[in-house]
User: Fold this.
Amino acid sequence: MNKIKTISFDLGGVLFTEGKKVAQDVLFRKYGYDKELILNVLKSTKSIELRKGLIEDKEFWLWVQNELPKNYDTKIIKKEWYEGYILDEDIFNLVKKLKNKYKLVVFSGNIKSRIEYLDRKYHFRQYFDAEIYSYDYHFNKLDKEFFEILIRKSGNKPNEIVHIDNSEKIVSLAKELGIKVLIYQTGNIKELEKGLSNLGVKW
Assistant:
């Protein structure tokens, strides 16, 4: 078994809670916004374009305003969406323990303004050696090319990389390229640590 040299982390659902679901619930509870309408815009094709850096924030939120009832406030929706990403202390503590022992990489389909917001709030970026965001490369995690960028940026062989994600969708693609994948569900830190330990990762 090849020694693991690079560990990459997804953000939403791993280092942070999945913000869409949190925002959906908060917007319904506090403002009476329809959950289905909110989820539809946050998972829309336009949202994917935003994540890929193909459109700017302003264009996306103008589009959202036109898609939703006129009494829905996009500033509130954006605020609750970003605030819905809450730091997972278990994962953050693991990252701190792994720092300087392995090459740590952020590998995320994300939005530039949200990354900036989260770093101002949690100062997480300082713990990573490299960051690979969909908006910088115009790919997302269902694109083979995005994982090929991870391999290049790691400077290691694919089988020396383990990626931690919350989505089963990416497993077959990553494994096809030789990258190991561990699936994390919030609260299951012991299971994740066991998976890392089985791959020879020490902290």
Summary: The chain has a mean pLDDT of 96. The radius of gyration is 17 Å. Strands lie at 6-9, 103-108, 130-133, 161-165, 180-183.
